[in-house]
User: What shape does this take?
Amino acid sequence: MAVSEATSTSDPVGKSVRRVDVFDKLTGAATFTDDIQFGPNLYHARLARSPHAHALIKRIDTSKALEVPGVKAVVTGQDAPELVGMYLVDRPVLARERVRYFGEPVAGVVATSESIAEEASRLVEVEYEELPAVFEPMDAIKPDAPLIHPDLGEYKVVPFIFPEPGTNISEHFRLRKGDVESAWPKCDAIVEMTFGLPQIQHVPLEPHVSVALWEASGEVTLWTSTQSPHAQRDLIAQSIGIPHGNLRVMSPYVGGGFGGKAGVTMEASAVVLARAVKGHPVKLRMTREEEFVGTTMRQSLVAQTKIGCDAEGNLLAMETEYYFGGGAYNDYGVNIARAAGYSCTGPYDIPNVKGDSCSVYTNLPIGGPMRGFGMPEIHWGIEQIMDQLAEKIGMDPAEFRRRNCVKTGDTILTGMEMPAIDVAACVDKVTDAIDWDKREKPSAPHKRRGKGIAIMWKAPAMPPNPGSSAVVRFNEDGTLNVEIGAQELGQGAFTVAAQMAAQALGLPFEWVRVVGPIDTKYSPYEWQTVASRITWSMGNAVKAAAEDARRQILDVVAETWDETPEDLDIKDGVVISYRSEREQPLKEMVIYGLPKEDTEGWRGGPIVGRGSFMPTYVTNLDFDTGQGPRAVVHYTVGAQAVDLEVDTETGEIDFLKIASAYDVGKAINPDLIMTQIEGGAVHGLSSAFEALRFDERGRPLNQSMVDYRIASAVDVPKEIHGDYVETPLEDGPWGARGVGEHVMVQTAPAIANAINDALGIRFNDLPLSAEKIFLALQERGEKKA
Amino acid sequence: MGSHPITVTVNGAKERLNVQSNETLLQMLRERLALTGTKNGCSAGECGACTILMNGEPVNACMVLAVEADGADIVTVEGLAKDGQLNALQEAFAEQNAVQCGFCTPGVLISAHALLERNPHPTEEETKLALVGNLCRCTGYLRLVEAVQAASEKAAPSAPMKGDA
Assistant: This one.
């Protein structure tokens, strides 16, 4: 599908209009944080990092670092005692008393150049007393495991997260529905398996970068590459004790986020370093090497899962335990374990469920949100078990899913009624797209062909009440500025905001500008650009703001014409009356108002529309059972099918086709959905082959893009087929719900199911690799090397 | 560490600069000339975000010292559009929706531009190989390849092939 440049697009919602950011991004004009020019007043910072996975800090000597010419300040945890965090405030800005992972920042150096700061950071002398470390979540939950956070009971925590002080468990979510024990004897097929996924990294092409300026007046400005300008204002202000009004967070275009730039990662460090050199902006830029240890990672997972069904293929019971390896700090990760807990069945209607989902501290880099937020991790196991159950009872895996998938109005595992969605329609679309029923021949005798399917669900995982707001303001010529706090990460948020404002106001799409960069001093509040919530939540706010402006305009015109607003409309920037057929262009009147007909004075004035949206209906869940009237706002669902070939002589996989279909409610911009589907399929494919590796002391082994490979242009499937279903979401703008994360959630298990179809071999642990597949084939004696 | 006078042509304009011995071409472009369209994704020649043309060849600017650029002809992403008009390749990227976050885009455009200069009608496989050094986490690459193919189809089929194609 191609998008073409039009000069006047009426009613843009539902049309594949051109991205509003495309010209700047194609010409090098798009500004990212590192591109902002600060002049010679700018200082540079580097962090000194822990060489141990777990140790007590006995002494820090900064004197040698301070002697280096050009060094302006050295800051340690003693100077910055603050803790920061989203859900569980457990993370020091700079380590104090104790380090909990290799690479944890213990000091920051500010200097006149990056190379001086780098040199001096190596001269910070730290005396450590090493402590026993623990790296695997299953080891960390043992009673005799080294305790990583002795102060767990003292940390500030939101009311829906339940840490277990005295252990390494930072959150434990319990789901109890029906009675699994009495259900097992009724099952004709049961599959019980353990699955594992390693920590992986987001690898956005733009490394994290922040510039902080602490002025003598106490005003603080943070320029940063983030998905969360407003959440950073709130969390950093609270943590560091800056009045919210004194902290301004500005964020231009973000060079890829994928969750890695959500919440607060390294930004608070820049702020405490800037506090030491007031009046100078301080730039803290992660090297690519630091990206792999000094930001956040997707958490590892060990899943022990048992699912059973009857001979007709009806799912009867599921029992599962999820242990997320959360790394050294779980300030954000605790909510991933919670989300995996209340969605622990995947998109299935199962009458008896016992689920336990825990996040567990380990002495590894910080776990945090990544595209899918726990769902790719749990679907890896669930979707492989479903295939095996189908096989055991002799049912087609796609049919098994159609039969058991969650449907509109079902009472789902938390007791909530499922809002309208259509999983089965997504299954139909992807099975059609890859000729599911047709066995196809491999392209060579030493190759094996296989097809696999997987389905998914994901709800936005967030506090019950995250808000969005928007303001629309006109220019004299009738063009419109849309102000939002949602961030453009590449997903197309600005384009969708412009489409929605134009649609709701009756303007051509090309008349709308989205105001950037996001600046908490001027941009309306947006909780965070996360959870695939922007099209839905921001969209509702933008629509409300545009409708507010529309109402104001129609009131002025109706009064002037002595008509009623109900008889008026706005089309292509002109107010029209269906009654009198009069017309009034918006130009000028949206700023200067209209003269009264008797020429005695004026009506109206500058039109400013405002809109807010916040879900008000999400409830608490019972601590012991996870039951409650409304666990989440809604779910987005989808299906993927994979057609591949395995080379039995090398173990290498040729991806012939990935077909994806998601229920998006309403496609605001169909081609932007396709770009998410394509990028997500490759991200999901790549993720199946990725792993952060550590040595026995917790030191990272693959901190580069050569040693940690992400998919390149030659690794992609020959074809990606994207499609969508439109079952409207009750409270979505034009019925829309988000799809940005969902597109990669079930790719890895769909691949695993296709490999099994090709070879009859299952892999319970990620990452996959050609070597692993080759060795598995050898072990089976299929092929001699 | 000394400083060295160099003369270099960047996007058609001749520049005289004093550069440091250890200064990379990427630093020179971004920090001296404020040509920030060329991105720093790894400083290690791994990601391709800083790809520029040096005497017609695509290179990672982070792996070239500024002194090595003495006398060279450099083209960055800022040199592709003329008078506010996207060139055919950029237009194809816009039409194919081949841009998401935009951070890899400048390097991808330069690699693709270099490919089409030496091979005006590449196959899909040749295009993928030409982009293998440009990592992208957003698009899944297929749109990038489609955009290059579309730009190549628009080029006159009689365009002269260069000897090294």
In short: Chain A has a mean pLDDT of 97. The longest strand of chain A covers residues 315-327. Chain A is about 25% helix and 25% strand. Residues 313 and 395 of chain A are 7 Å apart (CA to CA).
